[in-house]
């Protein structure tokens, strides 16, 4: 069994950290565009995204996006729900799968955070939490599967290196 590729793993984790740092930056950016009385609400909306989406990603999102046999190219399975079986999994590339899970989680976090700019000062916090929870599972996970997880768009040769489809188009349409 090949060992861990330390260079690729380190770069993936550094990239994950950089994307995670973009989320508070986005919160500050959107807060700066809000009225002064709404800045704290905007910051709270974006930071709550980190916790909520992280929990959903671990429980269901990663599994629906990247594991199991695809259901007609539309959605993955619950084979790795709760990250079951991924602790010691080392794919052929030498990068531990949990590092890949963390990397993809950062994109799952920043996508709904991008949406929050569209409803700044227009949506209650509780409604935002409900929307993000449902949207992450019902919209983000299937689209991530279509493009990155071996779904129907992946089979047609669609390439999305920087998240233009999964992150930006998806967030723009949802906003």
Number of strands: 0
Structural class: mainly alpha
Proportion of residues in extended strands: under 5%
Low-pLDDT stretches: none
Shape: globular
Helix content: 55-70%
Helices and strands, in N-to-C order?
HHHHHH
Count, helices? 6
Rounded average pLDDT = 89
Please compute the radius of gyration using only Cα atoms. 17 Å
Biggest beta sheet summary: none
End-to-end C-alpha gap:
45 Å
Architecture overview:
Helices cover 65% and strands 0% of the residues. The chain is mainly α and 175 residues long. The radius of gyration is 17 Å and the shape is globular.
Give a quick summary of the entry.
The chain has helices at residues 6-33, 39-66, 97-115, 125-147, 152-155, 164-174. By secondary structure, the chain is mainly alpha-helical. α3 runs parallel beside α6.
Characteristic terms for this protein:
175 residues; mainly alpha; 6 helices
Give the SSE layout.
Elements: H1 6-33, H2 39-66, H3 97-115, H4 125-147, H5 152-155, H6 164-174
